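Why do we care about 3D structure at all? Because function follows from shape, and shape follows, mostly, from sequence. That is the central idea of this module. The next example makes it concrete: a single protein chain, its amino acid sequence, and then its structure expressed as tokens.
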Amino acid sequence: MAFPQMVMAGFLPFSAIYVELYYIFASVWGHKVYIIWSILFIVYIILIIVTAFITVALTYFQLAVEDHRWWWRSFLCGGSTALFVYGYCFYYYYARSGMSGLMQTSFFFGYNLMVCPGFFLMLGTVGWRSSLLFVRRIYQVMG
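And the structure:
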């Protein structure tokens, strides 16, 4: 049951940042200037909120079936958006970038392979922390 939860938990926040990823990749790898920083900040806040809400909802469903081992699952569900971001790297490289050659391929996928684990840790922490606050709150109200 953990894998379908991770897929759902990763896809929903990814769908919130999908369009903005193109502009970020185009500015980093396509030498275009990114000028809409306020929109990027808003999308970042939306990403954090959606990740927190999805992870809390999945933690609630897990607790409702009396499975109390929510810690790692909330972390993995929160961070699974990074897997979709790395999958988007393949789409961007082959369909949109026009890059070719061994050096460009190794730089592109190598750098993204370094960024995505940080993204995983950041969103995993958001998911775990929001689930922790949720669980503390519901047991505080019950007890």
